[in-house]
Amino acid sequence: MYCRRALSFDRSRSIPETPAPTPPAPLDAAIRGLCPRCGAPGLFATFLRFADICPACGLDYRGFNVGDGAAAFLIMIVGGLVSLLAIIVELTYAPPFWLHLLLWAPLTLILTIGLLRIAKGLLLALEYRNAAREGRIRMPD
Known about the structure:
Layout: H1 26-32, H2 69-93, H3 97-129
């Protein structure tokens, strides 16, 4: 025969809560494509497009506004670096113009597109870490 036993809950022996995962460093999250909250992989759905939500913790990436900031930063940084290298090569070796085009145009494209994923991930991770939101103006009542 079946014996029914009343289950009692002993509050002194409650299940310990699992600690929240430590968020990764913003640069680490950007390079490895990790969620800025929990550190799970899956920040990007494609090479340059963010996923909608984190598959592990449910953080909604659609609420972040990275925009064109990453591209603007990279154009300035890569453009300055490539310009400096082109000037140094010109003053040192004086190659023909076609060689400058052959060297610097592809290098600029490769660096900009190659670093764009990291830059976008870094801006999103920093926006999450600093709780940055769009500016709001409080209207008087």
